[in-house]
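Subject: Interface between my chains keeps coming out wrong

I've been trying for a while to get a sensible model of this assembly. When I model each chain on its own everything looks fine, but I need the whole thing in one frame so I can look at the contacts. Pasting all components below, labels as-is. Any help appreciated, I'm running out of ideas.
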Amino acid sequence: MSTEKERQEIESYFHEKIPLTRAMGVRVEAWDEERLVLTAPLEPNHNHLGTAFGGSLSAVATLAGYGMIWLTLGDKNGHVVIRDSAMRYRRPVRGEIRAVCRAPVADVMDPFKAEFANKGKAHLKLAVTIENGEAIDAATFEGTFVAMR
Amino acid sequence: MSTEKERQEIESYFHEKIPLTRAMGVRVEAWDEERLVLTAPLEPNHNHLGTAFGGSLSAVATLAGYGMIWLTLGDKNGHVVIRDSAMRYRRPVRGEIRAVCRAPVADVMDPFKAEFANKGKAHLKLAVTIENGEAIDAATFEGTFVAMR
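Reply #2:
Try treating it as a single job with all components included. I did that and got this:
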């Protein structure tokens, strides 16, 4: 399956299965097996200060993690949950929210895939960077996701 | 000002200033100066598994922290931001989301208020518990908020 088709499928999956992603205007900007990039416009996600709401940043980062697991395993029907997460908010986001999740290196990803294939359950720690409009890191997320068959 | 009036005001403030709270259906259930309780229905906040989306839980918990700071300082015009947060997801939430933020003890709260009054800037760490429908802890949140005048 082409990555472009996967990109569209994961966006449709988000919108269909997680209705808040529609309200947030989440789009899948890019997926090339090394990174997944999600975006969301500021307007439905702003806070009392006119910058991006921390809860929106956390939600988009969480979605990027889910998407990375689904796309990596090629299995959206796998039962994926989040176990824990940590956010560090560094700078306000004054425009479009952009969440970049880079695939872990093979030394991390390969054992995750093997364990999922063999045991039907595996966990993976993923980092997501939230960029503001100027491609500067505005927030960082780290979360542990558990995939079960 | 009565706490009931404050309860209504903070709910209106959320809906007016942070539009995602309307999409999420966030309500202020209770505020009695010792705790702030927010709720959100499952329907607009469900995920691909039919349980509450982790991003919604994180967002409601973040809001509870903001609300606690605003209500404690009696000053919604203060510039409040979140610096960091950590979530631990323990059990799925299969019904209404309920976020309970208890006010820190006076030994913590009084210095925060004094520092904000004297220096115009202070930070406070707040814990929020997400309960599922059976009032059992489903997730815990800890976040550091910074208030500036």
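Reply #3:
Confirming on my end. The CA atoms of residues 24 and 121 of chain A lie 31 Å apart.
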